Amino acid sequence: MRSALRRALRGTLSGVSALAFLAFGGALYARAAPPAVLAGLAAVAVGTLLAAGGRSAVRELLGRGPAAGDEDATVGAKQDTDWWLARVEPALDDSWNRWSEVVLTVGLAAVGVGSFVLVATHTGEEPPLGLLVTGTLGINGALLTLAFVFD
């Protein structure tokens, strides 16, 4: 019972971390979020990564590879990449489970529906194109990840 609860908590934290890193990367790319929002997203992303994967996951995200003494050190060196967002998946790999998939699916659906609600309640003349794109990507991403929840 205790291990099942721990596995569920680690999976939930991994899913939240993945969503936070996606939101952080999207906000950086769009250059539309204020610095306080970026700092908050970064804190949530790194904090949940640390809670789910430990210090070795943070080291892998920073590009320093697996911790010393890891038997997979050669595998980590081969998968080195310069793009920090591509290192999130290997960093979360050990703690990723079915709970992570559920959190990712629900989170993407919430982003998609929320974006469409904001478009529907927009008072201006033309709806913001960015919200339409975000809504479409969120709903489609949720539908794609839904298949992995029931795998």
Word description of this protein:
This protein is an all-alpha fold. It is 73% helix and 0% strand.
Topology:
Layout: H1 2-30, H2 35-53, H3 55-61, H4 73-78, H5 88-92, H6 98-120, H7 129-149
Helix pairs in contact: 1-2, 1-6, 2-3, 6-7
Short structural summary:
With 151 residues, this protein is mostly helical.
Binned strand content: under 5%
**SS-based class:** mainly alpha
The low-confidence runs, each spanning 5 or more residues with pLDDT under 50, are none
- What sort of overall outline do the alpha carbons produce when their principal axes are compared? globular
User: How many H/I helical runs?
Assistant: 7
Mean pLDDT: 86
Measure the end-to-end span. 22 Å
Query: Helicity range of the residues?
Result: over 70%
Largest sheet: none
Describe this protein with a few key phrases:
7 helices, mainly alpha, globular, 151 residues
